[in-house]
Amino acid sequence: MGKVFKFFLQCILFGSGLLWLSSCTNFSDPPYISSTMTSTLLKDNDINEASGIAISRLNNDVIWVNNDSGNSADIYAVNTKGERLATVTIPDVDEGWLDWEDIASFTMDGKAYLLIADVGDNSETDWRYTLYFVPEPDLSQLEKGAHIEVEPEWRTHFVYEDGPRDCEAVAVDVANKKILLLSKRNEPPVLYKLPLKKIKATKAKRVGTVPTFPMPKERHFRFVDLVGFTNKPTGMDIAADGSGIVVLTYGDAFYYPANGVEDDWLKVLHSEPERIELPPLKQAEGIGFDQTGSRVFVTSERLPTPLLDIDISGLRK
């Protein structure tokens, strides 16, 4: 792309961003601000585009993180102090398609898994996407700093029934044997579902649209704000006990208690969310519940990589 065209494009984006900001209205409800939100930095320059985060189902104080596109086919285990515990290389991935946008942890049939979602598609032109299902390594059997390979137990290629989509928010619903995907660039966002089973290829079914996520109370002037992406969904997770779902945007996070309708997440996402106010992270893209569902962890792309630990026990109903 030529320098003149780049400059012209930046001017357009900046101008449209200012128009967008001038038309924004603040979300009137007060945000939920955790009294025990803690923050640390990941002490690892290799994790420079943290795009997904998942809390271990096997080991306490273990968090799995993946980088975005353009990086190696590795996932990283860190602790809540931000220290790297292990590196896991996933062999035989489709390198030409590598745009890992999210990671999820879950237990099925008594076995712990990590789902790695190769679902990013900024131009919305890809003809297929891939989910990798990896047995979660038990770090209690490894030395700190270990580097191992783990083969996917299975992988599922899929397409969307209504055409290509860019997606960064993926969650696993074990109770109902479903995988949920929330589109990023559609307005309003669209929820899709896939079956949670060992199949080689399938089609993501459209479930329906969800309400546009609220804007943050305070305006920011980051690049994602200037291009109108502040309230786009970038991460999602379902609590292990099915008690709620959380969605991350570049602005804030939103918690939706299931309230007894765990079999209908579209209905849940149409309910009034509890808003979790976040500091202005550079590019917040990873969110995950802890094993109890009473805390969420959030991370962001770009160095230095933050790790937020947020107590949401006051939101659980």
From TrEMBL:
Alphabetical keyword list: Signal
UniProt keyword annotation of Signal present: yes
Signal peptide stretch: 1-28
SUPFAM superfamilies: NHL repeat
Name of the protein in its database record: Uncharacterized protein
Source organism phylogeny: Bacteria, Pseudomonadati, Pseudomonadota, Gammaproteobacteria, Vibrionales
